[in-house]
UniProtKB/TrEMBL annotation, chains A, B:
This is Alpha/beta fold hydrolase. Residues 196-232 form the AB hydrolase-1 domain. It comes from the Bacteria. PANTHER family: HYDROLASE ALPHA/BETA FOLD FAMILY, PIMELOYL-[ACYL-CARRIER PROTEIN] METHYL ESTER ESTERASE. Keywords: Hydrolase. GO terms for molecular function: hydrolase activity. Gene3D superfamilies: alpha/beta hydrolase. Pfam families: Abhydrolase_1.
Length: 320, 320
């Protein structure tokens, strides 16, 4: 825990984006919302607002970042993953705020404080909820189950039982059917906040690539932490003026999925370079930063990686 | 917007509470979480952690509140309702933080950053999602529909089209089947944070009464903003040493539900007094504070009401 107080010039939150949809012909019913309250007539017919997105903004005093720094979380999580670690340390939200960046932390559409509405009616799908066991191997933390407690050798994720429960409590249902409305909402967020650096993790990397290609004038740099996917090859040239840093953690070669995901990311980086762009790919172990799981910002050495990101941004003239 | 920076000694978040449940015998399937990623084998069998709760803590420097001040939101909303107003002003979270209170803002179980899991399997119900139209009359803001824009005369809620969309984007599915696990999680929150003042709105008032009766040593005072329900009559004596302030807004007499809800609250206050407790009921119009909807903390005159709460807490020796 860092004991130095943080001075905020301002902070707060807002929602952006979303679209309306109509429902008609459903029966009106009576609902007792709270025991001991009075029943209410609930008419489910009418207008629904779906696909809005929550964002929290903190502006430090003094401010040293040239533009705001956005944090886009991965699938199955919310913005809370940047706000704290499972073992209660400060998150990357603090790290960059303390260095004078305006930080904007959002909850992706249909997750967290963005709320969710009329799923699957509007999206054609229902979300996947994860077991306690699922992310243990999939996020390259341990083998077997978390109940066994067998971490991968040297793994930096706080994998004790209490921390694991804290991590799982951060997880939320993850949608595979809401990508279009999520991308749209990220566009609304960039519109509202203005040109920003986007730090994106995992599934967030998919949206970050696509958003940068769709609205290149709104993205000043991309920091992609183990992006789960790539941008669109035919639109590689749209990324020409946006410096990109791509980070990958440890244990990738032994994983059933990450070698392929990483290889696709690197192939896309080549396409962006061929189109005149600049993409730097950093495999953390080659920099002597070892033991990172997929949840790099939560790992015990997460601040070492944050320093690397901070230095990269400063070298690009985005911090003074 | 208040332009004075806020100094935070610390801030962050955590999750508390929840319990595990098992699922067995379901088919394993393959899921492509992100387009362009690698498919993952998803085993839905295993352990689930349900009923956890998210809380954000901000500790100002210097600190003047004797204990932390918790904010428990109402049904269909998240903690964001304390963080901003639909027209973008600072919320009560700011108001009390600026006065030196440690503020703890939670998202109730199955809402916001608390996530939701295995609904209805674990709770026996599915949540209610609200139309854009529904809260307009029910929250005593206007007549007809928000699209007509007919505010109740003198109403202080920011009811212009843009603000209304912002408010609706804050709403989330509201559960009527998760009360037991929500109360349990509030207990875990009080355990974690320690004795606190609880400011609760609407459905949150139901949980605040019950939590104070269940864990009276953890609650130093209750501020109930239009509580939707009461505590348990047989346990009125448990509230003997907890000062209570109950607030009601305007337009109650013309509403189909609020006269009954308010009357029950006042009857319960009598029972608490009869058992030796102290409950102060304030109908804001009788104090010259007029035009308040059900969403008092969001109303244009919300800070006037916050001043009244602040003074009440200071008179009880909870602020220096």
């Amino acid at each position: 825990m860092n004991d130095t107080p943080i001075a905020l010039a301002r902070w707060g939150s807002f929602h952006v984006g979303g679209r309306t949809t109509r429902v008609d012909g459903e029966p009106v019913r009576e609902v007792l919302f709270t025991p001991g309250s009075a029943p209410a007539v609930l008419d489910p017919n009418g207008t629904y607002l779906v696909g809005g997105m929550y964002a929290q903004v903190m502006v430090p005093a003094p401010r040293r970042g040239a533009v705001p720094l956005m944090f886009w979380h991965g699938g199955g999580l919310t913005g809370a993953c940047w706000e704290t670690t499972p073992d209660g340390r400060e998150g990357w939200q603090h790290f960059f705020l303390r260095r004078g960046w305006e930080v904007v932390v959002s909850d992706a559409v249909e997750r967290g404080r963005s709320g969710w509405m009329r799923i699957p009616e509007e999206t054609g799908g229902i979300p996947v909820t994860l077991t306690v066991e699922n992310p243990w191997e999939r996020f390259r933390i341990g083998t077997g189950t978390p109940q066994d407690g067998a971490l991968l050798p040297g793994n930096q994720f706080p994998g004790d039982a209490q921390s694991w429960a804290n991590f799982i409590r951060q997880t939320v249902p993850r949608f595979t059917s809401t990508d279009a409305m999520t991308l749209e909402a990220y566009g609304a967020l960039l519109d509202r906040v203005g040109p920003s650096v986007v730090v994106a993790h995992s599934q967030g990397g998919f949206f970050a690539w696509r958003a940068a290609q769709e609205w290149p004038d709104k993205v000043r740099a991309l920091v992609l932490v183990e992006p789960a996917s790539t941008g669109i090859a035919e639109k590689a040239a749209a990324l020409r003026d946006i410096p990109v840093l791509m980070l990958f953690g440890d244990y990738i070669e032994g994983d059933p999925r990450w070698p392929a995901i990483r290889a696709r990311g690197i192939a896309f980086a080549e396409q962006v370079r061929a189109a005149g762009g600049s993409v730097e790919v950093v495999d953390l172990p080659t920099q002597g930063i070892r033991g990172n799981s997929h949840m790099i910002m939560m790992d015990r050495n997460g601040d070492e990686v944050a320093v690397l990101v901070q230095d990269w941004l400063a070298r690009r003239g985005l911090w003074a």
